[in-house]
Amino acid sequence: MTTINSTIAERLSALRQGLAGQLPAEAWAAFGGEQADLDAAGSPEGVLAEGAAMPDGELLDVHGDPATLESARHGKPAVVVTYRGAWCPYCNVALRTYQEQLVPVLAERGIGLIAISPQKPDGSLSMAEKNELTFTVLSDPGNQITAALGVLTAPAEAARAAQAALGVDLTEANADGSHGVPMPTVVLVDAEGTIRWIDVHPNYTTRTEVHEIATALDLL
């Protein structure tokens, strides 16, 4: 059982143990193979580095209204988190932890938290409501920001088949009908819109810890 102060790694370890006993063996093997391949590949080349301008795009809020990262930041620094979608259990754990542990830290320093995914607005709303998120959750149709950051990927064929067997169809969940998803990434953006720190996790079963983000805030 997780506690309020447990790390994301600890929470995800508990999640994996639970999934191992729930998922069909074929699906578990497919996901395991994909994760091993992601670990072997490592971070992609071409990821935007510190000092680059944070990309933006024509985004949608949870009600389907137009939005941008710039408008969501309100001229202030922000931590921007990319996640795969409300259907991803690892994403739910990560964003729920950020709500509990990171939001208070950011509030003390006047820094916003913005989470983006390629899913439709109703998926963003579901994610926000299910996890009682008080921070901004936006849809990034077509993975505009994800692609510009250099962290766009897609599930392998075997993993897509396993997802389909479990009732997950990314072409239905994603706003653009594609299989594209972001590598879970955390970006610290300053008030001028410049990337001050970026942390990419090619393997979606791992995430940036709260203490790592808190330490990076000193770069502002």
TrEMBL record:
Pfam families: AhpC-TSA. Keywords: Antioxidant, Disulfide bond, Oxidoreductase, Peroxidase, Redox-active center. It comes from Amycolatopsis rubida. Thiol-specific peroxidase that catalyzes the reduction of hydrogen peroxide and organic hydroperoxides to water and alcohols, respectively. Plays a role in cell protection against oxidative stress by detoxifying peroxides and as sensor of hydrogen peroxide-mediated signaling events. It catalyses: a hydroperoxide + [thioredoxin]-dithiol = an alcohol + [thioredoxin]-disulfide + H2O. Signal peptide: none annotated. This is thioredoxin-dependent peroxiredoxin. PANTHER family: SLL1159 PROTEIN (PTHR42801:SF7), THIOREDOXIN-DEPENDENT PEROXIDE REDUCTASE (PTHR42801). It is an enzyme of class 1 (oxidoreductase). Its EC number is 1.11.1.24. Belongs to the peroxiredoxin family. BCP/PrxQ subfamily. Residues 48-220 form the Thioredoxin domain.
